[in-house]
Specification:
The chain has 13 helices and no strands. It is mainly alpha-helical and 291 residues long. The longest helix is centred in the middle third of the chain and has 44 residues. It has a domain of 98 residues.
Length: 291
């Protein structure tokens, strides 16, 4: 027994397009396509064969016409771009002058600073030397330090002979003066080789017990030694040496060792005082000349 058909399958479609004939390209569409293909082929042919047909005789392109005076009247002139590295001569000269002035300033400062340092070092070394020479010991180390900052100083070189062993201090000279003066007083009373026996006995006794006048008046050896002793007590070695010039030859010979040590002390003190004054003067001059 056959089943009855479904009504949906029997009902025909309502859309008319289902029953229409399918659309195809018409003559106009094919004409447009053919025209496009011809244009493409023609363009390719011109590109390929144009140089062979015209060669190099093709007219050159005309340059663009320059704008007339009326058209360019209101146009501003183009700014000239600066050439790199080509600065004006005036600017270069000014820069060179400024650099030279700056270099001169720096050099002056460096020179002034070096002079100040050297002057201060010399003043400090001179002060150390002055303190070291006050005693009776060596001042070799202090003199070497001063020679490093004042190598050309004649005053510094003059101290070299005394540096290793030093010189007798003023205090030691004052303490030794009385003993030296006593020997000088005895020598001043020496009667000589032609003196009699009693004179020789008397001189021998004075060598054991010295009797010396301490008054500064008069012109005898005792008076000269007294005046010299007073000058030594006051610290005046120069005055003492001046007084000792009046001693007779034998007394002067007895005082010679003390006199030599006193002369050495005076020479060292004078040189040290000169060195110290020069060092301080240089330091003050450099300080005032600071830029």
């Amino acid at each position: 027994m056959t089943a009855a058909p479904d009504p949906a399958e029997i009902t025909p479609p309502i859309d008319p397009a289902v029953y229409g004939r399918p659309r195809r390209f018409g003559v106009g569409a094919w004409a447009v396509i053919a025209l496009c293909v011809l244009c493409v082929v023609a363009g390719a042919a011109v590109t390929k064969f144009a140089p062979r047909i015209w060669g190099d005789d093709a007219p050159p392109l005309a340059p663009p016409a320059a704008p007339s005076a009326a058209e360019s009247f209101d146009l501003p002139a183009p700014a000239t771009a600066p050439v790199p590295g080509a600065a004006p001569a005036a600017d270069v000269a000014a820069s060179s002058a400024e650099i030279a002035a700056l270099q001169s300033r720096v050099l002056a400062l460096e020179t002034s600073q070096a002079r100040t340092v050297n002057a201060a070092a010399a003043a400090l070394a001179a002060a150390s030397l002055a303190e070291a020479t006050q005693g009776s010991g060596s001042f070799e180390t202090e003199l070497a330090a001063l020679e490093r900052v004042l190598p050309l100083s004649g005053e510094v070189r003059a101290l070299r002979p005394y540096a290793e062993n030093g010189v007798t201090s003023r205090a030691a000279l004052a303490a030794d003066f009385d003993a030296s003066a006593a020997r000088a007083a005895v020598a001043a009373r020496d009667p000589g080789e032609r003196a009699g026996f009693l004179a020789r006995i008397g001189h021998a006794l004075t060598a054991i017990v010295t009797i010396r006048r301490v008054g500064a008046g008069g012109e005898g050896p005792d008076a000269v030694l007294a005046r010299a002793g007073d000058a030594v007590a006051e610290g005046d070695l120069e005055g003492a040496l001046k007084s000792l010039r009046d001693l007779p030859p034998k007394a002067a010979e007895a005082m010679a060792p003390w006199r030599t040590r006193a002369l050495q002390r005076i020479a060292v003190d004078r040189q040290v005082a000169t060195i110290r004054a020069m060092a301080l003067s240089d330091l003050m001059a450099v300080s005032r000349a600071q830029p």
